[in-house]
Amino acid sequence: MKMNKRYYLFVFVAGIALNFTSCKVPEVVQKSENINLPDQYGQEENDSTTVSLAPWKEYFKDPYLQDLITEALDNNQELSMTLQEIEIARSEVKAKKGEYLPSVGLKAGAGVDKKARYTSLGASEATTDIRPGEEMPEPLQDYLFGAYATWEVDIWKKLRNSKKAAVSRYLASVEGKNFVVTNLVAEIASSYYELLALDNELKIVNQNIKIQTNALKVVKLQKEAAKVTELAVKKFEAELLNSKSLQYNVKQEITVAENKINFLLGRYPQPIQRDSGVFLNVLPESLQKGIPSDLLQNRPDIRQAEMELAASKLDVKVAKARFYPSLGISANIGYQAFNPKYLLDTPESLMYSIGGDILAPLINRNEIKATYIAANAKQIQAVYKYEQTVLNAYIEVANQLSKIDNLSKSYELKSQQVDALSKSISISGVLFKSARADYMEVLMTQRDALETKFELIETKMQQLSAMVQVYRVLGGGWE
Question: Domains, the chain, ranges and CATH?
Answer without folding.
Answer: 31-92+170-320+363-473 (1.20.1600.10)
